[in-house]
Specification:
Number of helices of chain B: 23
Strand content of chain A: under 5%
Largest sheet of chain A: none
Radius of gyration of chain A: 20 Å
Helix content of chain A: 55-70%
Shape of chain B: globular
Order of helices and strands of chain A: HHHHHHHHHHHHHHHHH
Structural class of chain B: mainly alpha
Number of helices of chain A: 17
Shape of chain A: globular
Oligomer: heterodimer
Radius of gyration of chain B: 28 Å
Structural class of chain A: mainly alpha
Strand order of the largest sheet of chain B: 1-2
Helix content of chain B: 40-55%
């Protein structure tokens, strides 16, 4: 059943790709003119100009799938703990893991191509996205996905040259974006107190993922460098987000699922520090516990997410990735603290993330129409 | 309008003889539009304080013609207003019943979209020209219920047992007392009457109202333009004066400062467990720690979640030094757990406490412009700044097993904050003694304990003398406070003033602003007379009609 769904997913994605690639030519001019009139409201676009409505938020899909691949790989790695309940994972064939990884790769490739098309033909939209306080954070998402995919690859060892090269290729854009976005926080008009919202944590997650990959490669210094950048800005952002200077204005209700990023960042920090210090010591535990607490805090507030759950949209995919990262951190924790509670926690969280991802895939397959962009969410920011 | 008619009709029926003259005059006007208001002969006296009660009654009764109340008021202008308490307990309750009816109607009116009505029960004390009786008239028996006139006497007897105004504060709206009185063998009809006129539960004010209505560093004083749901001049039932009482828990939970004190009992239990003398118990069972920490965890999930996601209760609005109480619980729990030998649990709570403490620390230092509760001058609650780092220091030392750099850093932070607050001793003077003074003791003792621990690590005369000095100071403070508390509680009887913070209204009354100057004027009768003029009344009435 799983493979069947993956096939459906692949079909949908390929269908989307074919329609968009054929559609970017003729009607594109019309829509460009339309938009250049300086419309002040979001315009409903015809269905074929998907690439105009396509934005980086769609990379949530690839984030989730790549994260799931990494989780699978970590779970199926040999463990020294005889009490580990990992043998359950061994029951499933390793072919399934390769399939999952291929699906993640395929989705990422398709989404990347779409975004490249958008950059080529709708550069103005990309610029508008870069200026938007939510959109600019999702520009990290493709690079994070590529890095996660790299870490979970079944056929490339971390110490090879190819791995090194790919790491540099994927981390450099993250660093460039860091410099640009963090610099804007302190210098230009986009002050942090005005633009801070939960999606800003994606930039820190990017740094931490890069740090973890670097630590796995053996390059400690670059790992610690990226880690410190991520943690320092995370501290500032954590305080700012808790203060909620702006109240509820900064995030529309449809994007409430991104609140799950609150516990994705400390989990990722825990994993990164674990890779750097090569054992799950007290700071790692403290970060993991913090993310566990934030997870419990969010899960016990279902009313917060009610409005966003009315209609299926791509923001629902924001639920899956943080759960996967939390499950990963729980796995590492269980490896360190061998005991029944930690193993049960690991299992529960892993199952939860798998289930959520599967449900989201099913929803995507069934309600794919809801998923496709119907309007350009960043048209409102375009200057006439 | 229909409601007002009903009210008129009910008031008519309900009162036997002593209808407030004001109401009579008005309602007869309203009912028939053709009867001339006649001041009724009465022995009635009202007990009240301020002119805005007239205004409240005017608001309640939608008067078509502005003349009649003015006339009525004018006819009583010449007479002094007295402020007096009813001499008999029955009078007290009955007068409150009267007010209760007004409250019911006004609540009903309010919910029907009429202008916001003050729910207050101060009724102007009018003396009748004929009698010349002034003070403390026993309130005549009167049934405030609308429908059953013949049952007034029965109603009266049962209502004497309880004051319905406080019902909305009761956990089951007085049903428990009805049950009890039922068990005592009251008649069934009485039961129905009581059930029929059960007051609507007082709606809980949103957080904004707490900031609008209250002032002061602990949001403990009522702003002048505000009114209370409960009578200001009466002494409320003890449980409503006792903070974090079982009857007003919900309102305290929504109070932005009081909610932090919900942690206090659990923290006290944790300290008791920490300090248990060896003769009582040597090794406490680990399960005790889980039992004590579960409520703290649940409270935290709720309160920190509100910081993160709440619109009204977000941290930039509500941050104040009392929030430290919600953080310190984590550290105390970590300390206890580590002393018991637990490993993961203490680290869990330490991590949560540390993360949220850093947020709170930065926010309080920022003193954001959106923050309304930080006072200009210091207050005992500021000493809580010292509590968190000192306990964190102890907890980290216990978790890691040694007094390492982390513990030392937090100890020095605690010491610095202590010194910087203590040298501002001038700002701590001039406070009336209150329970808030106990906020001094916990941080002081925490700092002393940390100093003792530090002195055992770094052993030199300075640290030893410091530990002795701090311990001495905290012991003296605690003893002194204990004595003062005992004296104030049992000798002076003023330890628990009316807890106004829980009794603010849900909505601000719009016509308050007109009479703000009246309120700020002294409660002297003459001032009130001069302030109230015909123009003011007409202006208020016109504004009402415009709405």
């Amino acid at each position: 059943m799983e493979t069947g769904e993956k096939q459906i997913q692949l079909q949908i994605l390929t269908a989307t790709a074919t329609t968009t690639t054929s559609a970017t030519t003729a009607p594109a001019l019309l829509t460009t003119d339309h938009l250049e009139l300086g419309a002040e409201h979001t315009l409903p676009l015809p269905k074929f100009s998907t690439v105009t409505g396509f934005h980086a938020g769609y990379f949530r899909i690839s984030l989730s799938l790549c994260g799931l691949a990494l989780l699978w790989k970590t779970l199926s790695a040999p463990s020294t703990d005889p009490l580990a309940l990992r043998p359950i994972i061994h029951v499933l064939p390793s072919v399934a893991f390769v399939l999952l990884w291929s699906l993640a790769l395929a989705s990422l490739v398709v989404l990347s191509l779409l975004y490249v098309a958008r950059c080529l033909f709708r550069f103005r939209s990309v610029r508008a996205e870069f200026d938007h306080h939510v959109g600019m954070n999702y520009l990290f998402a493709p690079w994070i996905s590529w890095l996660l995919l790299l870490q979970s690859t079944p056929f490339l060892h971390p110490k090879t040259k190819c791995y090194h090269l790919l790491w540099w290729v994927f981390s450099l854009p993250i660093l460039v974006l860091d410099v640009k976005i963090y610099g804007r926080w302190i210098t230009q008009g986009k002050f942090l107190s005005m633009v801070a919202n939960p999606t800003s944590q994606i930039s820190m997650i990017g740094n931490l993922v890069g740090a973890r990959a670097a630590a796995e490669m053996g390059q400690r210094e670059s790992a610690v460098c990226m880690f410190s950048v991520g943690i320092a800005h995370y501290l500032v952002l954590f305080v700012t987000l808790y203060q909620r200077f702006l109240g509820n204005d900064s995030l529309p209700a449809m994007l409430r699922p991104v609140f799950f990023l609150f516990f994705a960042a400390p989990s990722m920090a825990s994993l990164a520090w674990h890779s750097i210090s090569s054992n799950f010591d007290t700071p790692c535990k403290m970060l993991f516990f913090l993310s566990l607490f934030l997870f419990a805090s969010l899960v016990s507030r279902p009313a917060l997410f009610k409005r966003s759950m009315r209609k299926f949209s791509v923001s629902w995919w924001a639920y899956s990735f943080p759960l996967t990262i939390l499950a990963l951190a729980a796995t590492e924790y269980a490896q360190e603290v061998k005991g029944l509670t930690s193993n049960v926690l690991m299992l529960v969280l892993s199952m939860l993330s798998v289930i959520v991802t599967l449900v989201l895939m099913a929803f995507t397959a069934i309600r794919s129409n809801d998923l496709l962009p119907h309007d350009d969410p960043f048209a409102i920011n375009r200057t006439p | 309008m229909v409601e007002n008619k009903e009210f008129q009709a009910s008031a008519m029926q309900g009162f036997q003889e002593e209808l407030p003259s004001l109401l009579t005059a008005v309602q007869s006007k309203v009912d028939g539009f053709d009867t001339i208001p006649s001041p009724r002969p009465e022995n009635t006296t009202f007990i009240g304080l301020e002119i805005k009660d007239i205004e409240s009654q005017i608001n309640v009764i939608d008067i078509p013609s502005p003349d009649s109340p003015v006339q009525v008021i004018k006819s009583h202008h010449a007479h002094s207003l007295s402020i007096s308490m009813p001499s008999s307990p029955s009078g007290l309750y009955i007068e409150q019943d009267q007010g209760d009816l007004i409250s019911q109607r006004s609540v009903a009116n309010g919910t029907n979209g009429q202008p916001n009505l003050p729910i207050n029960f101060k009724v102007v004390n009018f003396e009748q020209p004929k009698q010349g009786i002034f003070h403390s008239q026993p309130m005549p028996l009167r049934n405030s219920h609308a429908k059953a006139t013949p049952d007034q006497q029965r109603m009266l007897r049962s209502s004497r047992l309880r004051d319905k105004r406080y019902d909305s504060f009761k956990t089951w709206s007085g049903k428990l007392e009805r049950q009890i009185s039922n068990l005592r063998g009251k008649s069934q009809e009485t039961e129905e009457i009581i059930a029929a006129e059960a007051p609507e539960p007082e709606p809980l004010p949103p957080v904004d109202r707490y900031f609008d209505a209250l002032a002061g560093p602990e949001l403990e004083t009522l702003r002048e333009s505000e009114q209370l749901v409960l009578p200001e001049d009466k002494k409320w039932p003890f449980l409503l004066r006792f903070p974090i009482s079982s009857f007003a828990v919900r309102r305290e939970y929504y109070h932005p400062i009081r909610v932090n004190f919900f942690f206090a009992p659990w923290i006290a239990c944790l300290f008791l467990a920490l300090g248990v003398p060896p003769s009582v118990a040597v090794n406490l069972h680990g399960a005790l720690w889980y039992v004590l920490m579960t409520p703290i965890l649940c409270l935290e999930l709720k309160i920190y979640g509100q910081w993160m996601s709440g619109g009204q209760r977000r941290l930039s609005k509500v941050a104040n030094p009392s929030n430290h109480l919600s953080i310190v619980g984590n550290f105390v729990g970590a300390l206890l757990g580590a002393s018991m030998g637990l490993k993961e649990g203490p680290i869990f709570f330490f991590a949560i406490g540390l993360a949220h403490y850093s947020v709170l620390f930065v926010t309080l230092y920022q003193r954001l412009p959106t923050n309304e509760t930080l006072p200009k001058e210091l207050h005992p609650v500021f000493f809580l700044f010292v509590a968190a780092p000192s306990v964190a220091c102890m907890a980290w030392a216990k978790i890691t097993g040694e007094f390492g750099y982390g513990s030392r850093i937090s100890y020095f932070i605690a010491l610095f904050l202590y010194v910087s607050l203590a040298v501002r001793i001038n700002f701590f003077r001039g406070f009336r003694f209150s329970l808030a003074w106990w906020a001094y003791t916990f941080p002081m003792t925490g700092a002393s304990i940390a100093t003792i621990r530090y002195a055992s690590e770094v052993d030199n005369p300075f640290t030893q003398s410091l530990s002795v000095a701090l311990s001495g100071i905290s012991t003296i403070t605690v003893t002194g406070l204990l004595l003062s508390t005992v004296i104030h509680a049992f000798v002076l009887h003023d330890l628990f003033p009316n807890d106004i913070s829980i009794a603010i209204t849900e909505r601000r009354t719009k016509s308050n602003n007109n009479y703000a100057h009246v309120r700020t004027a002294s409660s002297d009768a003459k001032d009130i007379e001069t302030c109230l003029s015909k123009q003011d009344t007409e202006e208020a009435l016109n504004k009402m009609f415009v709405k």
